[in-house]
Amino acid sequence: MSPSNLAVRGAWLCLLLLSAAAAPAAEALGMNWGTQATHALQPKIVVQMLRDNGIKKVKLFDADHGTLNALAGTDIEVMVAIPNVLLDLMTDYDNARDWVRHNVSRYHFEGGVKIKYVAVGNEPFLASYNGTFDKVTFPALRNIQNALNDAGLSDVKATVPLNADVYNSPTSNPVPSAGRFRADITALMTEMVTFLAKNSAPFTVNIYPYLSLYLSDDFPVDFAFFEGQAAPVVDGAISYTNVFDANFDTLVSALKAVGHGDLPIFIGEVGWPTDGDRRATNALAERFYNGLLKRLAANAGTPLRPNQYMEVYLFGLLDEDVKSVAPGAFERHWGILRFDGQPKFPIDLTGQGQNTMLVPAKGVDYLPRTWCVYNGNAKDTSKLAENVNFACTFADCTALGYGSTCAGMDAIGNASYAFNAYFQVQNQRDEACDFQALAVPTQTDPSTATCNFTIQIAADSSTSAAHRRTQSVLIGAPALFVLALLQLFFVLH
Q1: Span of the secretion signal (predicted)?
Q2: pTM (2 d.p.)
Q3: Is residue 347 part of a domain?
């Protein structure tokens, strides 16, 4: 075996250990719709945008009534969700029955919401959770599906979106055909997979080729994409030229090993971020989606499941400025659209490779065109770093990180960006642009060619005001911006 092939196989194994399609039209694609934002777009605006772009399947991370009411009367298929924090409650059948009644049955009528699936938890078996949800996930899944069946809703299927770290290949044979479920959860996965098969429910997995590049500098870049330019991973008579196929087929092998090799597989999440890391860019996201969507439109399948339609939910629809950045600063930039529903790059959801932009959100109102920037006449700058630190603790400054869109600015630019981010989150309140006389409002746009200084959407276009969400924005920002703060000290002291 060539050294290059060994390197690819080794990198592929790393992805399996660390990580975690479709049809010829947009309506066959699903979209993840997350709402972890200080100023989330109103559901009715988002639903109209989905319809304008021909998207007819959506996956949620909760069962918010405002969102479901906005989806009522449309032809959009919906996967509602039970967050991990509620899994323990769902181990009691009465609680599961009540949840189904309040979040599924009440919408299941002619002209209601087309709820097709219930996601029970989200990646509950992540190795980093150290088994927190191992004992409650399957009982919750079983109770929810049984409650659906008992309510006359057996056509609604319960599933568990899982990270791709629930399966892997052994270090001695790191190829897809050797895929098995993780040793510590093999018995649990076997029991759960058997239950899914019995109820004709799909196995749902989240696959992220981007993580291979983020987690390993040695990973061959081309193997994350679909042009077939990477040195292949050779698995018997099969040669894998992209990590998506290899990852998917490792799962197929793991399912086969427990007696359910034909179980339907949904891709619950797949996508590419656009900021927060040197390889999280619009250009690479466009490249990734272009290759993925072409393959899905052709129903190419994978080597172990060739020429098959794949049920795929892209991740995600919109940027979310309150998501945890523990995995990386890129976490807030997965959207194919900006936070305000504006497209970032050309993407053809039909998979025909046309250079087209998505239809943007309509009816979005913005705050006045006022920004908050560093006060060039400030007399005392001794507390500048402290104030920048404060701003980035309560607002999103991930664009300032290494390799991000705003990383190239000087210290003044960094301070201005931080001040403005906080000012916008606080709905441009006068007192939010002072920072001990270090900041001033301006009507002159301070944005650069690569760095956008945001104007937030107005309250009448969003579902949440900043003062109601401030606490959820606390993310340990100081650790992310040490370099920026050091630069401030050296330049200004």
Answers
A1: 1-28
A2: 0.91
A3: no
